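Issue: ligand-bound run for zinc ion - logging full I/O for the record.

Environment: standard queue, default settings, no custom constraints.

Inputs:
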Amino acid sequence: MHRHLIAFVFVTLPLTAVLVEAQPGAKSESGLDLSLLDRSVDPCTDFYAYTCGGWTKNQPIPADRSSWGVAERLQEENESRLRKILDDASKGGDAETRKVGDYYASCMDESRIDARGASALQPMVDKIAALSAARDLPPLAAELHTIGVGAFFSFGAEADFKEASVVRAIADQGGIGLPDRDYYFRDDPKSVELRKQYLDHVGKMMALLGTTVRLKPDTTAAATSTATTSAATTSAATTGAGTAGDAETVMKIETALAKASLDVVARRDPAALYHRTTPAELQALTPSFNWTQYLAGVGAPPIDTLNVTVPDFFKAFDQLIVSTPVADIRTYLRWQLVHASAVTLSKPFVDENFRFYGATLTGAKELRPRWKRCVQYTDSDLGEALGKAFVREAFPASAKEDTLKMVRELESSMEADIKGLSWMTDTTKQQALVKLHAVANKIGYPDKWRDYSALQIIRGDAMGNSQRANQFEFRRQMNRIGKPLDKGEWEMTPPTVNAYYHPLQNNINFPAGILQPPFYKAGADAAINYGAAGSVIGHELTHGFDDEGRQFDAQGNLKDWWTADDAKAFDDRAQCTVDQYSAFTAVDDVKVNGKLTLGENVADNGGLRIALMAYLTSVGSSGGKTLDGFTPEQRFFISYGQSWCTNSRPERERMLAQTNPHSPPHYRVNGVVSNVPEFAKAFSCKANAPMVRATACRVW
Ligand SMILES: [Zn+2]
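Outputs:
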């Protein structure tokens, strides 16, 4: 089941960069994979094509993927390791190992899952069917939220933006099935067609649900778990409404929710998402939705104030539930239930869910093998238990020390970079350094592992396990409310191939999954390690100072520490980056959104620059030697470029360009190097070469 926690758009992730390890047969002195190069291309004309041409030609996208890059390759390697761990765990071990093994084994038991159809949803379907008026919605919405169903809005816990030492409740927009609010309103032919396909998908899912559960509560039936066989005969007759009508109903409700939602660019402004509200004020916003009942239903502790991110959304939600016939609300809730549960249900649901969310939206040709999906769900639901075993196998203490050393070098470079800026006054520089020195480095895995003993996992009950795991996580979030922020907690699991900066915690987080060969290789050519791993570390550090991060102080509070002139100087420089990236084409007629991607582009540019500074400092006056015919600086840039080699399907490129804050890999390479004079110098590019900008953008 997908977990519907509050997703902060400003907790930015780099979608990973991975160092390319030399492949068998591609011997090199430096460790660079020379087979990835396309030497027929001039690096000064198109550096991405030069560094990644071999990948583009020789690494086709596997049928079960929508993109294939060096990051995905490492992810597949990690999954194979996890599979072995899970196969062993499913044979037994200590209590926690058994829990992980039982979860995985239940997920892998496809014949049992298929035999049960959607009968495990019968109890919730009955509760939805019993909803007789909108005023009875709060306890039902609460129960749906705790099992991971995204009904109408989302609710969770997060540090108070302006008092980041304390965790508070947070109520946010939500309740839609398309990737973002704009999908409901774009009127280009592709978007119109996609909405038709979505309607078709919703209709099919509702029809499937109708064939495996009874859609009206049958008070004479004693048990619900054996409903599978008799359900098919009763479903269509009891609903009355056709499934096409159901889909239209869902679309109408989701469109109303989308209309009141902020778009992805508006959500980059933390001030726009911060509205400290008392429960009484929230109740006044939504007179028809009883929050006392809802808060009791989700098990929230007493709340004196919470963050209602988008007040207008909740006003619209109230309007919606009073103006919508209760039968339509029931239809919408049934859809949200089956949608959130789809991947844990029988094959017809899994296939139909893939047909829309995998094939139509991202262009994948076939479903991932079951074991890969089960590894992924176990990681999602029991990540720190599974992660413990992963760390034991794949992350020695020396790896943690090596990474920490590199992080400290990058921090020194960032300090030198800030001190040397021409556009910032000393007053703001002082504040920036205070913030930089306060950044905490979290590497590999948590110091204190999550305790899963309260989570019950039953072998053979995949759906129950998923629902209980969601309840466990929801309860964990509720337990954080009103307490001091624990900055030791992680938002990614140890095997994850990714990293993040958290603006409310002012820390950088590098899971063990990305801190291993081929990403960072102990003893490898420093130019390669700094070009790839160093640039990612620099990227995360720079996030503390991008268009969002710069608005938070050393303690993670949303607090302006800039002089007005320095803030303006920042904005002018950021605008250069916005304009530059807005001119790039992501796919077909879709341009890169320069405002949406600003924070990531600033982090990419700053990250590469401070990684280069750190590298040059580390090699000292000797300057390093030429290997494989490349100077140290050339190897640094090639390593950076190769960390982004990726082949993507156009459907995925389109979706990411419309929703994701990262630029396409191609521009993460060419956009950055064309701003850096050291690149032009390293490759002796002429002043008028495409990879040399007349107006180079630089923030940090
Ligand atoms: Zn990032």
